[in-house]
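Example complex used in Figure S2.
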Amino acid sequence: MKKVLIGGIGNILLGDDGVGPYIARLLTAFYEFDENVEVVDLGTPALDLIDQISGKDAVILIDSIKADAPAGTVLLCGKADICRNSPCVRMDPHSPALVETLLAADMFSVAPRELLLVGIVGESYDSGCELSDAVRASTPHAITEILSELHRLSIPYWGRENPAEAGIWWTAVKEHPPALACRH
Amino acid sequence: MAKRITIDPITRIEGHLRIDVEVDNNSVSNAWASCTMWRGIEKILRGRDPRDAWLFTQRFCGVCTTVHAMASVRAVEDALKLEVPLNAQYIRNLILIAHALHDHIVHFYQLSALDWVDILQIPKADPDRTAKLAESLSPWTRNSRNEFKAAQDKVNAVAGSGQLGIFMNGYWGHPAMRLSPDVNLLAFTHYVQALEYQRKALQVVGMLGSKTPHIQNLTVGGVANAIDLDSGNALGMDRLEQIRVLLDEVVRFIHEVYFVDVCAVAAMYPDWFKIGSGVRNYLAVPDLPLDSRGSAYDLPGGYIMNGNIGGTHAFQTASDKEFRESVSEDVTHAYYRDGGKSLHPWVGETEPAFTGWDGEQKYSWVKAPRFKGEPMQVGPLAQVLVGYAQGHPLTRKYADLALSKVSALSGVHASPELLHSTLGRHAARAIRAAMLAELAQKHWQLLVDNISKGDFTVHNPPEFPWHEVEGVGTHEAPRGTLSHWIVIKSEKIKNYQAVVPSTWNASPRDRAGAHGPYEASLLRTPLARPEEPLEVLRTVHSFDPCMACACHTFDPSGRQIEKVRVL
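Predicted assembly (751 residues):
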């Protein structure tokens, strides 16, 4: 069975940067997966990300993204798109390090065969625990992209009849976007 | 005429640490350390339930999650004068030790070894000779010819492909790189192995904390681990035994590989014991409490002023009165509204007033914390010097061992005075790791012995008064003294300030014009090629900077990364 990681990346204290952890928790609330699929709120893991992705067959990362597009736009990036950035001189060795992580995983031969970054264009990264309206509204779309990737990889998932508590403890806004239709 | 060099890693995110140096005759004549990003996330905590504060603070930084969680519960416990049961102290201590071992291994190998190790020399190494050299240094069983050959093959493959991948931006072939090809191969092989052992240390954090990267077992007044010796789910003998096995492997790696490598590399760069000293005021807090009240500790704390090791002052507790009363923050050169005087963290303010980089005026988002009005260096070096000065037996044991190894390998006498330096910071981190490795096994045994006595208590419930109370929670974290300062009123947080290790070390100048530790440590550093300031990176990296990995927005456009700008 393929080992899969779905990881939400970002800082829940900095506005739209928290969209990755937010979506990871929505996913586990609304869907069930086989035990070979791990859905994790990764926070801002820096180089520790290597441990999370190593040995996985497929990795789907969810992260806020900067792009010349309106807030809430969902963009998909493959490994080549991500690695087009060269790693920089690290003054602060703990900076978030997606490119470094992937290159290191390559060198240690632990890189996943499949990698997809589901990026959501953010609006505000000011300190605060709430998402902007545009980004919150885009979360069902991002989830659809994640599910289609699972479908493409032939990884099964099931919609829960009664969604579980999402456990998004940091937000004051308790209404989450409506659940998506279940697809197989 | 002095040249100005800016090293500003404008990465995919909004930048972190920026260093500006003025260079005169290939020597640094002035320096500025600045943080280019504002966080101000302490404000989020105001008005919240103090019981939940640790959940938020562990999101300050993605690498130091555990340390901010721990300092936060300790701050609330200090405000409430709440004792923590023995089991909870030992479980917390084991988590802190395992996290620190993971962090120190990663810092040396993954994050700073390549400042000293030249990857592109490795194809010239001879794995047989490297194996002989390694055997002469350590009993480590994985110092075999096959391991060295496999690591060399990895480098050959990367170098031969023309795509350096992860090694794209090193200063390879720089005149300040001086290890032989064999030593480069030895260190790189351990760089590969280190990845496995740091992971084992992190597994211990996960097993005790129920999860990584964000532990879930803390609670104000103790921990939430259920102890049941016969259960497979709760913390029982099975789980404890798995933890012991993992710890033993990590301990062996620290003692037989990391500690030895640092001594060996140090012996080959002896001039770096004379570079990078800077601020010689040192501050450390006691940690790893041995009783529920927090009156005895396995790591000593205190302070040293002006490098006077003979005149050290000890802190009796982790929230020592002298410490509580002596910390203040100055914002003369930081982008905050300045009321004209330094403020104690309990009445601290964080009102942004951005004006752009101006070396004469304001130039950083980092405040300037001061102790008795003075800049202080924090981190493993501070802790080792404070312990050494107090005659702490465990500190003396490993510090003396490191110094004697360096002396034997380099042929020059290495005295404790040499530790005031760039290499001293690396050596001190290895010394601290060796101490913590021994303490990991000790605290595992303390926990098992206490449980075996029939004590299963893990939590004392907190009671919150309605009147205002203040507390400070400290932790001697991998990067040094961390303190969280809380004011609680009517069960709500009234004020919260975190004074983090990298704020002490990366601090800008203060009202009196005194440099912060990074800045001071760079003065008079010789640069072989100012346009490739490897020497600046060596010293800055030796502090293990962490400027809050606060934001993780990814920029796929690959906006031009400006590495070094020479004006």
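The two ends of chain B are 11 Å apart (CA to CA). Chain B has one domain: 3-566.
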